Amino acid sequence: MATVTGLFDTYSDAKTAVGELARAGIDHDDISIVASNADGSYDRSTGDVDAGEAAGAGAGIGALVGGTGGLLTGLGVMAIPGVGPVVAAGWLAATAAGAAAGALAGGAAGGIIGALTDSGVSSEDAHVYAEGVRRGGTLVTARVSDGDQENLARSILQNSNWVDINQRRASYAEGGWDSFDETADPFSPEQVEEERRRYAARVPPAV
Fold first, then answer.
1. What is the C-alpha to C-alpha distance for residues 200 and 8, in angstroms, rounded to an integer?
2. What whole-number distance in Å separates Cα of residue 9 and Cα of residue 132?
3. Dihedral (C-alpha) 144, 205, 135, 49: value to the nearest 10 degrees?
4. Number of domains making up the chain
5. Could you read off the pLDDT tens digit of each residue along the chain, which spans 207 residues?
6. Do 35 and 11 form a contact (C-beta atoms < 8 A)?
7. Which domain holds residue 69?
8. In this structure, is residue 194 part of a structural domain?
9. Which stretch is the leader sequence (predicted)?
10. Cβ pair 134, 180 in contact under 8 A
């Protein structure tokens, strides 16, 4: 088995990637999504997530797995140290949350770095992915078979406008960033919006 991970600046791009992974035959059990909720876009009190695209917000991590509603209808709300509030679904979220998986606004035991490295992501990349979510991004991760399925999943994520992880690492470093710090204060909604504007005109990586 292999793990393929992509960071996205917008939830819309990540949602497209998840849909394409599912259409390619990758089981919902093997797809995970973690999206920043620093700005409170995902309202668990009403169940509205992006105007109803994920109507089950608050249902709990993994509540959708094997269900009929599709991956994005099972988003649950949780908090990740150093990242702050996120909405998440799937195996990576459950790994990050540990025994607290699915608990609304529950602290994620072990944090996102441990969950990523346990799944095979290098520590260096895991720090960039975690920082990306902290700054308002969305992470999509798929467990796939080595070989053709791995290549297909990587192509799907890249074609969905994933972030070039090396370029983003360099961009963060230019601002003095060194590594993700789970003891740091999460980004404020204003800081997240500033980050999103910064990368809004980003040219998609070449395929």
1. 11
2. 8
3. -60
4. 1
5. 899 999 999 988 998 999 899 889 998 888 989 989 888 776 544 343 432 233 233 333 233 333 334 555 556 777 788 888 888 888 787 777 653 344 334 444 357 888 888 888 999 999 999 999 999 999 999 999 999 999 999 999 999 999 999 999 999 999 999 999 988 899 999 999 999 898 887 656 555
6. yes
7. 2-198
8. yes
9. none
10. yes
State the Cα–Cα distance between residues 207 and 204, nearest whole angstrom. 9
DSSP per-residue string spanning 80-110 = ETTTEEEEEESHHHHHHHGGGTT-TTEE-TT
Which amino acid, one-letter code, is at 180?
F
Q: pTM of the entire structure?
A: 0.80
d(CA 83, CA 130): 7
In a domain, 207, yes or no: no
Q: Is residue 206 part of a domain?
A: no
Note whether residue 204 is domain-resident.
Answer: no
Three-state DSSP state, 113:
helix
As a whole number of Å, the end-to-end CA separation of the chain is: 24
DSSP letter assigned to residue 48: B
